[in-house]
Amino acid sequence: MKLSLVTVVYNAQDSIGQCIESVINQNYPNLEYIIVDGGSTDNTLNIINQYRQHIHILVSEPDKGIYDAMNKGIRLATGQIVGMLNADDRFADNGVLRSVAAAFEQYDAEALYGDIDIIGPQQQIIRKWRSGACTANSFNSGFMPPHPTFYCKRDLFEKFGFYSLDYGSAADFELMLRFMHLNKIRSFYLNKVMVKMLTGGVSSKSFKNRINAWRFDLKAMRKNGVTLPLFALILKPIRKLIQFI
Fold it and tell me: Which domain holds residue 191?
C-alpha cells in the first residue's frame, strides 16, 4: 500500500529538519513524501534541500495559507492513503507509518486517527491527547480527532471535497466532521501515540484567535449536522482540558 505524506511549511527553520528526519527514519518502504513550502524567506529551503534525495515532490511558491498548501499537496499525491505531518511536528517513533498501513489493510478503514503528545520547547510533555474510538454520536459531544494523526483514502477528497478555506483555523476540524460525522466513512482508532506536536497552534496564540476559532468551530458544526452545536462547542475545550498532565 502506497502512502503519501504531505508536510506544509513556511519559515520553520528551527523545526523542519527534525520533522524531515522523523520521516526519513520511518520503517515503511512504499512512501511518497511531498513538501509544500509557502515561499519561505528564512533558511527553511536550504535545510529542506539538504534532504532533497528523500523528498519525492517539492513545491515552493506563495499560497493562501496552511490549508491551501495542504490541498496542493493532496492534489499532487499518488498514494492510496494521504496524511499530513506539519513542520513543527515529528513522528513519535520509527514504526508509525507501518502501523498505519497495517491498520488500513486489516480493518478495511477509509480513515484512521490515533493519539498525540503535545510538547513544550524543552521537549516536555504538556498534554497527552488520547482520542478513543469514534462512535455515531462522538462529534455531538465535542469529540475531535487530533488532525496530525488523520490519514484517509485519497479518493475521499474527490468524493467529499478538500479543505475549505472558509473555516479559518478550523478547516481541519470541518473536514473531519464532513468526512466522519456527515458522510459516516469507516474510521479506525489506532491506539498509539503517533505524533509529537509542538505546542502553540495558530488558533491559541491570542484570545482573539481563540474567539475566531470558536466561531469557525460553531460554523463547521452547524454546516455538518452536529445535533446541538452550541452544546458541542462548550464540551470541545473541556475534553481537551481534562487531558493535561
Answer: 3-241
